[in-house]
Amino acid sequence: MSVIEILNEKAEAYGITVSSDLAEKLNIYAELLKEWNEKINLTAITDDEGIAVKHFLDCLLVSKAAQFKDGNSVIDVGTGAGFPGLVIAAAYPEVDVTLLDSTGKKLKAVEDIAEKMGVKNVTVVHMRAEDAGKKPEFREKYDFATARAVAELRVLLEYTLPFVKVGGKFLSLKGASAVDEIDGAKVSLKTLGGKIDGINAFTLPGGDKRAIINVKKISHIPSKFPRVSAQIAKKPL
Length: 237
Known about the structure:
Layout: H1 3-11, H2 20-37, H3 48-60, E1 73-77, H4 85-91, E2 96-101, H5 104-117, E3 122-126, H6 129-132, E4 142-148, H7 153-160, E5 164-174, H8 178-183, H9 186-192, E6 194-203, E7 209-217, H10 229-234
Parallel strand pairs: 1-2, 1-4, 2-3, 4-5
Antiparallel strand pairs: 5-7, 6-7
Helix pairs in contact: 1-3, 2-5, 7-9
């Protein structure tokens, strides 16, 4: 079975329909991901079932946590190989998606993949999150921020919430450790103006546990945040 055949079969059980247009785009994504992965390390998952389930389906499940509307803006922090940001952009062509990463080589690959997929609603930004989060053109400008497996939640909040408008949401794609990470993020949430607004838990085909932590931005962040990465790592909130 092809990546798309596997995805179609597996997605149905989660109430997700993959349109023919999205299927065509994701098929190109899968092939180019494999090609680029031979040049640079984008992902350890390169088999068709893994790409279909652990990348594409995993990212499409974000739709269960967020009701994206035309004109919404999303920033994917630490996008890496484009997950989940590029998948969101492909699935929601009327949503503006910014793909942020500090690794230029990965962004070059993602930019090439997006172009060949025909995804036009993406902007690629080569910058560290803690630097971009201080800049007026990015700070509190987005309806949603996303991040997948970048860092533990209390650290991740400082990197992501500065981008989110008050009233917007940060969607953190996590594994089985999600609940424990929430317990450890109470100070970070209070300090950075965030509030847990629910958890969407899933089990992927094959048994891997997934959770999307919904964090609502309820107040502005003090101007001193985000701190420099060394401070965030040394003394997380």
